Hints:
heterodimer, A: 879 residues, alpha+beta, Beta-Lactamase, 7 domains, 5-stranded antiparallel β-sheet, 22% strand, B: 236 residues, D-Maltodextrin-Binding Protein, domain 2, 2 domains, 31% helix, 25% strand, globular
Amino acid sequence: MDRNHFEIQVIYEKNTKIVIFLKSLPVILVVSFSVSLISQWGLYEDSQLLLEKKMDFLLEKEALELSYPLWIVNEERIRSLSKNLLKDPDIVGIQVFDDEFSMVATEGVTFVEFMEDDKGSDPDLKLFFHFVEIILFNEIPYSVITNSHPIYFDSDGIDVFIGTVHLIISDESVMETLQSVIRSHLLSIILTIFLVSISVIVIYQLEVENPLKNLRRAIGQWGDSDHKYNSDKNENEIDFLSKEFDLLWKEKNALTNQVISSREFYRSTSNNLPIGVLIISSNGQIEQTNKYLSNVFECSESKLLNSNIYDIFPLILNTDEKISINNLELNDHFGPYERAFERKTGEHLIFRVLGLKICIYNTDFILFTLEDISEQFQMREKLQLSSELLDQTSRISHVGGWELEIKNNTLIWSDEVYRIYDVPKDFTLNVEKAIEFYVDDYKFLISEAVDNAIANGRPFELEAEIKTAKDKNKWIIFKGRPYFSNEEIIKITGTVQDITERKNSEETSKILQSELNHKSKIDLLGKLAGGVAHDFNNILGGIMSSADLIKLKLRKHDESLMKYIDIILSLSENAAKLSNKLLVLSRKDKDDQKKSSNIQKMMNETVEIVYNTLNKNIDLKYIEKNNIENLHFIINDSSIQNAIINICINSSHSMPKGGELSITVRRDDLYFYIDISDTGTGMSRDVLSRIFEPFFTTKSEGHGTGLGMVSVKRTIEDHNGEIDVFSTLDVGTTTKIRIPIVYDSQQSMGEDHIVHGSGVILLVDDEEVNREVGKEILESLGYAVILASNGLEAVQIFEEKFREIDITLLDMIMPVLDGYNTFLKMKDIDIQCKFIVSSGYSNRNNIEEMEKMGLSSVIPKPYKIEELSRVISNLIKTY
Amino acid sequence: MFFLNVSIWSQQQEIKIYTYHTHAPFIIGDSIGLTYDLAEYLTAKSDNRYIFTVQSMSKTRVEKSFDNEEAFIVPWVNPIWFDDEDEESYTWTEHAIMEDGNAVISSSENQINYSGAASVSGLRFGGIIGHRYIDIDDLADQGEIVRFNNENHVNNFRMLQKNRIDFTIAPLVGAEYIIQVNRMSDDLYISPILHSEYLRKFIISHNDEEIVRFLDSLLLHIQEDPSWIAIISKYR
């Protein structure tokens, strides 16, 4: 009804404007016409004046033009000029007279023909009537203007009168133009008024009559038909509306009362609602609220009504939402959003905010409802935390949950189950698809277990293998337990636990156990070899020391026996080398039996061994890139030899059908380089990266221990050297070794030179032979010797005599107290004391530790007298 | 007889008379004038062997016509006017058809007897547009004479009547005819001494010797020929 009332108001205003316009239309018409006539009258007068001016101008011009022809009495030219003049549409006649007023030329009408037309009436009045005639009649009664001008000729400075020219000008063409202009002007006025009238009629039809008809129809549909005015169909719309509005006015009063009571009802209802109700304008001004919000905001309702919601509850909308709310054309609802509100007491409330666009009296407002969901929110947060904890637990333990609702055959998985099966969370789940994940051997078992649980209520636990969506094989424990309701199984719940890692660990454990057993055997063998080598070395030590002693004592008496003693020594030395190789091969020998060695000799021997060892289909090349003829430096030649041989044997294995093996050596000031290259099968990158791993071998079981290259690396590292292996499949392998050159300071003295000295030496050895031989050698070199048969005895002696003892020659493996611990105890007694370790077998780690603590030197067993003499002599000197 | 007539007709030759003397008395109307009379006279004198017909044109056109093959004659002309004083460029008749000259004409009330340029110095002269007058032009250039230009001699004679000029110069034959026709003999006076004299001859195109012979033989005695005298007297 409000809308219709507004429309009536608009229609009434439009109708009033149109009626005013129609009433003023005749006045507009008359005024326009009058203004037009007056303006045209002005034009007409102007045109007459213009004609007169034209006449004056032409007369002067013609008088000038005709002057000369008339002077020379050239009548032909005068006639020609006159004829030309008549081409001007305004000129209707011309006469030229000579000085004797004889007519020289005449063209067009003559002046005389018009003389009688001038009645002497009022020229303005005549002109006006003429003007009216022009407008009204098609035949234009034109008038003429006549005038004459004397013609003079300048003869020797004297103007001589030679004749007269008469002109007759008609206003016919001017009148024609004027008539055309006036008529078109009037026509355009009439046309304009016509168009305006048509437009007004159309506008009236569209803006007044049609809306009135619509309004009448609309009013006909209003409310209760009993209240309607029964109109005559032919009745005017305005009359109808007038009567209808009388009725409506009465209804309006009744409705107003209803509205008041409705408003009271609304207020009462709103104030008792357990939620906040808020109506705001688009700029946030609060228009209506309820008691609930007054309580929440701790503010009176009247104060709230003068406030802006963004001042009270800034978080009710974020910036984007505020922008959105300003554009009400596009949005008709907001939210629901969850927004936090802090009360003055510090209490935090969470509201669910819902906005709705409403329109009141053509103005847009937003109706907000605010529901306190603080408790729900807290519970939800707790639930969320609990869920996250459960999920984390599931992830850690790899245990997921599942539930099968029997009635609907609906299967539910927890997140972890999805992860175990490697499927996304949007995976379409059903029992058949779930069973498909199990490998064929387990599909039946799982189906049977689930069926049994459903049919008989029997819980189950199965270990099964699955193939996940990412084609991974996993092991799981699949558990299920029926859930009863009213003695009826309604669902099966259970867990899925990923036990793949455990399963794999078990497999690995088995392999490791097997390897451990194998290594134990190897280790045992190593220990055995080490023990044998040690004893053997001790025996050889006795033999060689004795032989040395015999050689020393017999040197001056019987030279013939010397060669046999040398044979004994040579053979014993070979046996010692063999023993040392045995130690290395048993991987227990980590001795540092380094001595100054002839490198060229060592390499030649090594190449010879390699040559004899390799198949003949392998072409061995040995290249010395620069001179190493006199190169001597400290090296464990046997271990280096073993290392080179080991590498060469590996190379030969990579060339079963033969090939080329080259050993290239070179030196510079700091390093000795050995490059070993083959043209074998080469190694993959994976194999290459693992060759120094213990027990890694590419050979079949029983053909390799996987310790060869480990031993090689250890040997090179024992020499503070470096080893690098480069290999390309089907091309070959190159091993590059770099050993620092460490010269022996005694080398200049010569290997066979025996150095005598003086001092007290404590010789500690559990082998009596070694003690006796050692005592003899040392004494023969000029030293006083104190003997000890084990470490404990040695410590006791040292405690008493440490001030006298210059050097302790210490065996490493001894009963009661071994060499290492003896060393420690003696160092406790005298930190300055000097030690030489002499052993056929020793723990390299202990030696390294002893070196750090001040061990002076190490000599291998069996030692040679020359070497021993040099080492002791050097040590005494530094004392 | 019949065959004889045919033979005569077959020997007739049309000879055009090209003339640029289109003013009186040579041409005074449509096919009327001294030139038309001349054509008839010559045709008659040739015993109709030649038929002379008149065709008027400008002087330029006449000069261009010599480039064509057609046979024509040009009457009333003087070698000086064609820059052919030696009579080598064109074929001229040996004898003249008329002795003529430019007469000095003045008003009867203010008679001028011409005796050289000095006799007209300080006077007003009426000339024809584009015509050059020996001695007179020099005086006009020097400001000794005021020259008015007209398009024909009649107007100049009228100016003399209105005392707007003091003298004019016009060909004697033409002037006599105009004065006679316009009855101006009482108002105008012709000076006995001419401004200049010249002979009027014929040019014959393409050196047609037969025509030349015909014309020269005719011109030798034309001044005594009564029929010609009768013709001439019509225009004096």
